[in-house]
Amino acid sequence: MNNLRTLVEVAELLKGSREFLESLENGTKIIEEGEGFGSLENDVEIHADQALGSFVKRELINIKDSLKIGRITVEGKKDDFVFPDGENWWTIDPLDGSLNYLTKGLTQGLPFSMAITVLEKIENATFNDVIASGVIDFRNGDLWTSAKEDHVRAFSCINTQNCQPCRAEKLDLGKMIVVGEFYYPENREKLVKAFSGQKGWLRNPGSAAYEMALVASGQVAAFICDRQKQHELGAAYRLVKEAGGVVVDFDGKDIGSRAFLFNFQTPVILAGNQNLAAQILELLHK
After folding, report:
1. Mean pLDDT over the full length of the chain
2. Less packed terminus of the chain by CB within 10 Å, N or C?
3. Phi, psi (deg, nearest 5) at residue 78
């Protein structure tokens, strides 16, 4: 399997998706009322989310033979596409940050993004099996891509530049950006307790794929969530790891050997380096 060829296709799909999104009419029309944004059982889906998922699926089907695609999973779609002769599993979160897209108005607004993850296994896959991934910021086209290349070469880039995660040794909310997932009340309460008394800001722009990608390129020092969805986390895992950062659970263990389950949620800390991750763990367990 040529992971570099796969990486190129990931990038092209993400760039093509942005062009497709810009072509949509009434892209903010809600077509199904559910429990609310983020619900795994009955999510609110907007037209752009559904249309983007269908667009990427069509594009992947056109190149499935050349890339040995064996399975395509799209968030919001009930059924996977499975191809008996294929080997690799492509997963897509078409529009992460749907509410940000819905409310953006006349400005670029808050981030909304797409995440693509490619695994070299269809069954019994783990995060270690992620061989390529990408995230695009739909507002301006910023593109993060990463690939694992046979343990010899590895790549994690923001646009055309190599990613450089935060190398600061000391956690300081006044001098660095830390993102905490505030959607889930339990996680919000954990974070408020952990950082009680510290000056500075915990941020949450509202698109987890984008927020985690920023850890890889160093604008964000760390991302913390007690139940992060794996269809976004898979892409971020490869981006951050190949940039030289760390991705651990709330016990401090690398999640690489954890089973990759598309709609499963995982407690996770992504950080620019091990020292930052260790300090966050200490705060969470105090």
Report:
1. 92
2. C
3. -75, -30
